[in-house]
Prior knowledge:
The strands form two sheets. The protein has a five-stranded mixed beta sheet with strand order 5-4-3-6-7. It is of the alpha/beta class. The chain has five helices and seven strands; from the N terminus they run H-E-E-E-H-E-H-E-H-E-E-H. 42% of the residues lie in helices and 17% in strands.
Amino acid sequence: MSASAADRAGRRRLLFALPLLAFVGVGAFLALGLGRDPSQLPSALVGREAPDFALPPLEGRDEHGLSRADLGGGRPMLVNFWASWCVPCRVEHPILDRLARDGVTIQGVNHKDMPDKARAFLEELGDPYDLVGSDRQGRVSIDWGVYGVPETYLLDGQGRIRYRHVGPLQERDLKKLLPMLEEAR
């Protein structure tokens, strides 16, 4: 067999092997990704103080708004990013109401929402928030690394972020969250 015939045979084998290698690579990538919990997105903020911010109040709800100075104060709390147009926010709302009734401090950040719709949402489903800041442009949400609403952050008494939950809080999530709240006290 001549050198050029051997080169052609080698190229032919390579052409047959490339799709197989690509298929194996894609399969390995999917296998690694599918085993991950999507609510466990990494956050560079976990272990750090919450970002500095100052939001105006939700019009018609209160006069204070929400700022970095409202976080911590010696008690752990949740900071929940939500919106009236967010269907998963409706799903998690009964959990937030129950946590608030049980004495958990929850601060709310209303994300890119119309004030009248946000107030109607709270009137319809209940208002678990101590304070609500209106993030109409979504800038504070970006600073916190929010991918989309709802997202909930657990802060310790010094205002450091201890945990981030992406997506709606559900009953099964409380098994992890409640012990973390106790530990943060």
